[in-house]
Amino acid sequence: MTTTPRQPTDDSTLYLGSVAVLTCLCLWPVWAIDFPPLQDYPQHLFLAHVNATYANPAYNWPQHYLATLKPGPYMLFYLIVVLLEKIMPITVAGRVFLSLYIGLLAGLATSMRRCRLVNTPPWGCLLIFPLAFHQIYFMGFTNFLVSIPLLAFAVLDHHRLTSQPPSALAFARQALLVALLLLCHPFTILVYITLTAANAMLPVTPPAARKAAWAPPLLTAAVFLGWYFAAQANPKGKMPLLWWPVLETARYYSLMFTGMRWSDGINWPVVAGWASALGITLWGGIQAIRSKEPLPTRTALAFALTTAGFFALPFWAGQYSYFNLRMAPISYLFAALLAGSSRLPRWAGLSLAAVAALLVRQSTVMQTALARETAEITPLIAAMDANARILPMTFQTDSTVIDRHFFPEAHSHDHFYYHLLKGGGASPSLFPSPMLPVTLRPNADLPLATHGFSWQEQGKKYDYILTRNAPAEFTPFLSRYAPLIAKSGPWLLFQNTHKP
Predict the structure, then answer these.
(1) How far apart, in whole angstroms, are the C-alpha atoms of residue 102 and residue 95?
(2) What SS3 class is residue 99?
(3) Angle subtended at Cα 373 by Cα 370 and Cα 377, rounded to the nearest 5 degrees
(4) What SS3 class is residue 460?
(5) Phi–psi pair at 432, nearest 5 degrees
(6) What is the DSSP string of 112-128?
(7) For 151-204, how does the pLDDT look when each residue is reduced to its tens digit (9 = 90+)?
(8) DSSP state of 333
(9) I want to staple 144 with a disulfide (CB 3.0 to 4.6 A). Which of 103, 185, 446, 453 is the partner?
């Protein structure tokens, strides 16, 4: 079925104005907060920084690390940030990338206006903006983060491919989007293959377009399998599969609508905001059904499959897989696109825009509080010399702002801000993944204190030992070898004054 272009209306102007305002509100925490509160973000930024400045004589990176950045899966964040760091500071480059994520969501909300079969804006799509700050955002999975709107663009573009005569331009668009998805994250490619294959199987697909519809998922699957086996993604054999309990899984999914809190107390104003948004959207959906508007079958299928995947897929299938958790924000996004099919009059659409703005504001308040906790490390960074070897011993890394049970490592990578703000040096806590563009040199001799701390085996090999929420008895013990030189909040900094 082809869509008929509609002439701009006053409501369309209001919708685009709402998109612009919500985009600015979402960009505010990215640029106004000193430390974007994304758990893994400091380490990802550090990996890009090492590659961008590896040859800089002011830093001693080559003594400790190997930099191996090259185009491939999981590399889009690093490639973009490394290029940006040539013209701006690393912390600004990271914010530009996060702004790209928000910009893609804004582009998605704008483009959905052209997909409507009726002359009313897709007001429900404005929920894309408060849904931008989901669990994966706070976990800081940067490459996967930007792949989510790219996946939606690719799937929606495939919908067009199955409803219009195929063309070289249509296949070129699909190829470009698939290439970007592959650069972002392999898991998103698997979701793309599943959703586009399901779309090709729908009976509403015209027979003439059926073969063309199957080409993208089949070709993408072939490329993915070729990469997977060439990269020997699992050389050690079968990966263990682990599932979360159903109730635990459901609670995680609901965090988006409870202010990222559950076990530590729900944020009821956030719940009220989302309940209002749901009520407005459902009312509009009923109006659409009564007016016998075409049902958004393809979008509904994508939402159903991604939501089912969230509850059915394993939580664990090897190091840092988190299969089902990654599905939650994809499900949310397709839910917002589905909400865009609701038939809302102007007053209801503007009401939904206002609710979306309030939800973004509430998230910004939470992000600001979380960033203040990260900022507690800055006095310690100021007390350290550049190019130092640091042993981070983070005994407790959760936050008082977001749920401690579901985000137990909210501050586990804060120490990487030392390498970003002071420069150079080394610490042993890198992700143990061969896909990353920075690895420790085999002879780096940066031992981790994973099975108990020994001054002789670990402590004396570092210039500084940085602790967070250390037990009371640990401070006098460590002070026998390294004096305490700075403290801030839960952080303590010890200096090895006996190092030759």
Answers:
(1) 11
(2) helix
(3) 140
(4) helix
(5) -80, 65
(6) GGGG-SSSS--GGGGGG
(7) 999 999 988 887 777 788 888 999 999 999 999 998 999 999 999 999 988 876
(8) H
(9) 185
